Amino acid sequence: MKGSAVRHEREGACFVTAGLLIAVCFFSNGALAAPASYVLDNTEVRDIRAQALKRDYQVYVALPDSYRQGNNRYPVLFVVDANYAFAIVRNIAQRLNRHAGMEEVVVVGLSYANGDGGVYSRRRDYTPTTPRKHDYRSDMPGRQPAFGEAKAYGQFVSGEVFPFIAQHYRVNMQRKVFIGHSYGSLLGLQFLLTEPRTFEHYILGSPSLWYDAGIMFEREQAYAASHKDLPASVFFGIGGLEKLAPGKKRSRSEEEADMLADVREFDGKWKSHKYPGLKTRLRVFEDEDHASVFPFVLTHGLRAYLTSAK
């Protein structure tokens, strides 16, 4: 077969037509084999046990182009909701390095718990409290919805994931970045209002500040009453379309939340305290909504922290 290569497998044969870059594989019984999965280059999947939580998770790790070529230690980005966000963060970080001269990074994606639905896992692990009023239903038949384990999950991240990553990869653990969106940003705020030095930079997109009737506003007020400083670097990003529809009255509920007004109010409260160690910036992306804004938040949040050669 001219212009083609043939690879014989134990199960059958694969015919790779070089000119068309199409591979067709047949089992010995003549049935079509399942196509191979697409794999991101220089990525790894690691299993990790959350001992106190008694749950299993995976971490997804993306290594930079130069990782195998020297002994450099790299800034490390920790992104939650990794089942969705890991590939986005990895690809945008690489593109900013290759085409905009931004420094290379290691990306660590934090998966949902093994065996749990994504909604179930994130609702439990990223939220600070069980809502005082709610009518949420579980996405997992036979299991009641779970909430309010952000503190315990945060301790798993800092106490177990951090040492694991530091042991197995050449990362600079003095340059850690947290990346979250929506409920994921609630987890970031949990860190900020309890142990702000857990990360050196926080990228928080579209935080769900309406959650539990605005519990994070209460937490912010309590923090301010007992602290003179908040040593942190924070980039808030949100879509300009994440606002209350005309004719509705704003409240601290999911149905009547004005997320844009909420994040402006929250950021304003932080700035009003004049914490000497707090660097905070808010960027509104006017034509974006809750579903579309994350790549913009990520790009500008990285630029607010990572250095560029250009």
Automatic annotation (TrEMBL):
Residues 122-140 have a biased composition (Basic and acidic residues). Coiled coil: none annotated. Residues 121-140 are annotated as: Disordered. It comes from the Bacteria. The keyword DNA-binding does not apply. Residues 1-33 form the signal peptide. Keywords: Hydrolase, Signal. Pfam families: Esterase (PF00756). GO terms for molecular function: hydrolase activity, acting on ester bonds. The keyword Hydrolase applies. PANTHER family: SIDEROPHORE TRIACETYLFUSARININE C ESTERASE, SIDEROPHORE-DEGRADING ESTERASE (EUROFUNG). Belongs to the esterase D family. This is IroE protein. It comes from Janthinobacterium svalbardensis. The lineage of its organism: Bacteria, Pseudomonadati, Pseudomonadota, Betaproteobacteria, Burkholderiales.
